[in-house]
Amino acid sequence: MAELKPCAHCGGDAKFGATNCAHYVTCRNCGVSSVACRERGKAAQFWNTRPPLAEAGDRLAEAMEKARHILQYCPDKQVTAETIMSQALADWRKAKREV
User: Fold this and answer.
1) Tens-digit pLDDT string for the chain (99 aa)
2) Cα-Cα-Cα-Cα dihedral of 60, 63, 67, 70, to 10°?
3) What residues does each domain of the chain span?
4) What would the 3-class secondary structure string for 38-71 be?
5) What is the number of other CB atoms lying within 10 angstroms of the CB of residue 19?
6) How far is CA 84 from CA 8, 63, 76, in A?
7) 79: helix, coil or strand?
8) What DSSP character marks residue 5?
9) Cα(first)–Cα(last) distance of the chain, in Å?
10) What does the CA dihedral 27, 32, 38, 42 come to, rounded to 10 degrees?
11) Who's near 12: CB < 8 A, 6+ residues apart?
């Protein structure tokens, strides 16, 4: 049986799931799932390999938190916060186009 890495979104444990014609992996904690695959090993491979869009989404979430923090504690740095958000959003849009 293929070993599953922890959830890329929350770090929770993962488990296999299946329908009559497909296999998938889902997080026991947050419920996020992989795409459905015909082969169990392919579902595990997809789960264990972070797609670029997920990584860009994580960077976007981190940038939003950083920008929120800057705006909350350093309101005079609004331009810095906007720049951080713009760059992260551009990264995410680029990753989305590549999927």
Assistant:
1) 579 998 877 788 999 999 888 999 998 988 888 888 899 999 998 888 866 666 777 777 888 888 888 888 887 887 787 888 888 888 777 776 654
2) 170
3) 14-48, 52-98
4) CCHHHHHHHHHCCCHHHHHHHHHHHHHHHHHHHH
5) 8
6) 23, 6, 15
7) helix
8) P
9) 28
10) -70
11) 6, 27, 28, 29, 30
State the CB neighbour count (10 A cutoff) for residue 96: 12
What is the token pair recorded at 1? 């049986």
Quickly tell me which residue has 């670029």 as its tokens: 52
Angle at which helices 78-98 and 52-73 pack, to 10 degrees? Answer: 170
pTM given for the model: 0.52
Q: Are strands 14-18 and 23-27 parallel, antiparallel or unpaired?
A: antiparallel
Count of H-run helices and E-run strands, the chain: 3, 2
Q: How far apart are CA 16 and CA 46, in angstroms?
A: 12
